[in-house]
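Two proteins follow. First one:
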Amino acid sequence: MSKRKASLESAPKLASIFTKKVKKLAQADDGSQKSWKFVCWNVAGLRACVKKSDFSEILKEQPDIVFLGETKCKEWPNEIEEKFKDYSKTLVISTEKNGGYAGVGMLSKVAPLKIHKGIGDPEFDTAGRLIIAEFVEFFFVGSYVPNSGAKLVNLEKRGRWEALLTEKLKSMTMTKPVIYGGDLNVAHEEIDLKNPESNRNKTAGFTDQERGWFTEMLEMGFTDTFRKMHPEEKKYTFWSYLANAREKDVGWRLDYYVVSDRIMEKVKKSEIMSDVKGSDHAPIVLHIEF
């Protein structure tokens, strides 16, 4: 065998060794690492989403954690298993409507220290809406928050959810910083939806109560990362399928990353991936360095 041929054949092995070494340097023996990237996406039915999107834009971000909301499935589709084969996977299945309702899932390059499924109340946990994952540096809380419903019929129920969640976040942030992400089903300020006046106190997601609950959560020591980094930007994460809303950019910002105040300065990026199709929601990305 020529020296040139031997060199070419050994290149992939050297690249593999180099990649493993880089990963080892980035991640300590206790599972901690300095740089973390998150992607959260309400997929509005994961089986349908994988037929519309190849997830290439998501993978291009090289996320450490991917949280998917409204999965509506009992098991991971083969497409997800294949594309995220190096990730640990957690799926919280709804027991309502034979699993074809709500549900959330998390994909993680780093195995969590602990995982807790659900908010701890059967009124909500049958829908599969929450994952709490503990890592060395932080708690990650991924959620698909209940919608208050047409004519606000579920507003009181939503209030009970917010009270339970707020207590959990308050307790966790006293132990470790919290990164809370997902479809939080609220447009907090007028800038967060295209038509605030016609929706105020009439449409789920823009009632005084929902906005007030979100404010109360922030006042406990949390920050809306996107609004902190983009105080004047009108950008949305959800568009109705009706009336060409997405093409006209008639939308709502319903998807958020909320972090403990003490780590906001460590956030390097909080963006909306508006061009990614496959759902009526856009993915959101967060980059943080500890």
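Second one, unrelated to the first:
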Amino acid sequence: MKVFDYDAIVVGTGVSGGWAAKELCEKGLKTLVLERGRMVEHIKDYPTMNDDHWDYPAGDIKTREIRERQPKQNRTGQVREHSKHFFVDDIDNPYNEKKPFNWLRGYHVGGRSLTWGRQVYRLGDIDFEANAKDGIGVDWPIRYKDIAPWYDYVEEYIGISGEKMNLPQLPDGKFLKPMEMHCVEKDLRKSLEENYDDRVLTIGRIAHITEGTKPGLGRVNCQFRNRCRRGCPYGAYFSSNSSTLPAAAETGNMTLRPNSIVYEVMYDKDKKRASGVKIIDSETNETFEFTAKVIFLCASAIASASILMQSKSDRFPNGMGNQSGELGHNIMDHHLGVGARGISDKHSDKYYVGRRPNGHYLPRFRNLGGKTNMKDFVRGYGYQGGGSRGAWKEYSKEIAYGADFKKSILKPGDWGISLGGFGEILPYHENKMTLDYNKTNKWGLPTLTFDATIRENEINMRKDIRKQAIEMLEIAGFKNIKSHNNKYIMGHGIHEMGTARMGHDPKTSV
């Protein structure tokens, strides 16, 4: 087996991997950056960035190939002709479900930094202190004041558009000018201000440049095309490909190696520390060892934990760092798929300009103290959503033709608005993932089996999310309100967390 030595190793090239690479390289460390998937170069490898629906033979739909090769990836409905190349092939990259679980991901340089929703909200004291105050899980060893300077540093570098609100539960950041809210969003905001003392609507805080430029490969203002999931040729939204990886490469200290599947972190029993990683080249099936003094696992919450679980030694027989038995447990996400939508009978003379790649946000207002505290659930939720004007199709209740039909399609539909909840999931030890060595992937590595679900606290929270969404829209004067509380599957929020929890004591944390 060939062995190579570096100062530092970074595993993964998504948001955190790109940042680790940039910081290490700029500090002068010769850094090996490993990505299990293919190379993706900014702009060059965004083949659908300018496509329209009609550029595809059958339109931008879910094709037979997608249904056969990416059935799990498409559970969100996001995998279409324009985006399929940024999501994994489920046949080549299988996983198992003891309970339904959506593990949605892409294996390529840049990872999910190319397809993320780009919404960025700081955690605050209420989040950092929650476990200690609620007696749930274990207390985190850091607080907001420790992280705040790093929030500033990152936000100023990548560019965050947003509005300062001075809310204790949602700390403000270093914002570029906010995107403008649509007329119905302003109506809802005004109603909340007039009828509630604990609720406010703001435009989404999003990683898009709205003024000036930012470091990277020609990063300029957002063009309001809303084709972000295809890769942005303007670099207007933050991705590793347009921002941090180019910065790392510019130093001359980065060695980027795609098609490199890390399957083990090596442990030096004499030095009592991690000493390197083992990889399989996904194209040649060759194995290599790379050594370094510093190793960053940035392969996502699930993939990084999986690597640690496979990293067994006499010192760590159950996986590296797993003295507590908590590795792979406490899987969390944000539960969603519950809320309401309403129609406005106002503003028929107004329309929007461009395709704003952003929605609105209603920050948490439950369990903040006093009258906001709830008896049947702890923690809280926020709402995301948007206001838009409907299409002509809503006027077409049946197949039509002729002059009247042609006239009708020139008229846009009514304005509508939505509120969709994003709620916290508690860290349950029972929500876990395990390795299955009897079911391996095409490289002979164990697959993951997920066994996780929401429980009573989240179910009660969802009832309140739906109820409050209806109430707020009704009070604001919206009509034809329709609510929903769809069955939620863990992972569907694509905000996987947990699996290697931090704490004060290795006996209770990883």
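SUMMARY FIELD: The first strand starts at residue 2 and ends at 5. The mean pLDDT is 96.
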